[in-house]
Amino acid sequence: MFAGLMAISMLAGAETGSVHSITLKAVALDSGQLAYQMVKHKIKSPSGKVEDITKRYSQEASIPGPAIVMTEGDKAEVTLEHGIKGSNDPVSIHVHGVHYKIDSDGTMKILNHVNDQAAFPGKPYTYKWTAAAGTAGAWPYHDHTFGNPMLGAEDKGLYGTLIINPKSGKVPALIDGKVQNVAIKDIKREFILWMNETTFWGMEVNNIVNRQVPLWTNPTLGARENDLVRFHVIGIGTGFHTFHLHAHRWIQPGTTHIVDTFNIGPIQRESFVVKAGEGVGPGMWHYHCHVLQHMQSGMMGAFKVFESAPN
Ligand SMILES: [Cu+2]
């Protein structure tokens, strides 16, 4: 009887997912731009084990901000601290994609008719997110209050990425010419590229060493031939873009349509997996926005595929 109850409660525990306890801070960079910085990220697993993963993040504030990675079924409590010196303006986090109650909207009372959901100097604010079934994908989070209680300051650099991995642990990809499911645990590197006006702003989530590396503007990305690499491309600002990566192909999510370019408007996003250098080998493979005016303004970088590691 007791063993039976134990088994049931363990099963129930496995269903609930992990609970993330996250503290972020909004700060001003020397450039005058604003940015989010990771202060603390702890994960409590369904079995009750607590792991502090803060060291996986850059210790510095960055644009884009820290990439928060969760799995469908997880919950998060995200506390934002106001660290923008010389300003008393409220700063917030409005998240896309996941579920939350109206008091975690990250907006001011003028919009949500409930309360001001922002951090003030010395007065943090906590948001509660649920990565419910059906929320898998890469999503933006951004400020919605700073400087303008109806707009916020995402244009100044207050934005970052939330990656919700599917509970199945697998994503579809075009590998060796066939659409197949690949295990997320086999993805070596994830490249997050935000397309902001005429510049790419990047962040690498390196799953080999479990570290995040801010890549800043128009970065050169690196991977070894045949490594599984996942790209997350997100638009922000006012521009409409066409993302293109040379010599690689992938499938449009949810379809078997093979593409090497896609459209990205503000806050739209696409994620895709490639096998680095598949069929083409090592090389300095160019990526860029294919809107000519944006290309001419320098909206480009490189995906450098190195020879595969010797065994
Ligand atoms: Cu563009």
From TrEMBL:
<dbReference type="InterPro" id="IPR008972">
    <property type="entry name" value="Cupredoxin"/>
</dbReference>
<feature type="domain" description="Plastocyanin-like">
    <location>
        <begin position="61"/>
        <end position="168"/>
    </location>
</feature>
<protein>
    <submittedName>
        <fullName>Copper oxidase</fullName>
    </submittedName>
</protein>
<keyword id="KW-0560">Oxidoreductase</keyword>
<dbReference type="Pfam" id="PF07732">
    <property type="entry name" value="Cu-oxidase_3"/>
</dbReference>
<feature type="domain" description="Plastocyanin-like">
    <location>
        <begin position="216"/>
        <end position="305"/>
    </location>
</feature>
<dbReference type="InterPro" id="IPR045087">
    <property type="entry name" value="Cu-oxidase_fam"/>
</dbReference>
<dbReference type="GO" id="GO:0016491">
    <property type="term" value="F:oxidoreductase activity"/>
</dbReference>
<keyword id="KW-0479">Metal-binding</keyword>
<dbReference type="Pfam" id="PF07731">
    <property type="entry name" value="Cu-oxidase_2"/>
</dbReference>
<dbReference type="InterPro" id="IPR011707">
    <property type="entry name" value="Cu-oxidase-like_N"/>
</dbReference>
<keyword id="KW-0186">Copper</keyword>
<dbReference type="GO" id="GO:0005507">
    <property type="term" value="F:copper ion binding"/>
</dbReference>
<dbReference type="InterPro" id="IPR011706">
    <property type="entry name" value="Cu-oxidase_C"/>
</dbReference>
<dbReference type="InterPro" id="IPR033138">
    <property type="entry name" value="Cu_oxidase_CS"/>
</dbReference>
<dbReference type="InterPro" id="IPR002355">
    <property type="entry name" value="Cu_oxidase_Cu_BS"/>
</dbReference>
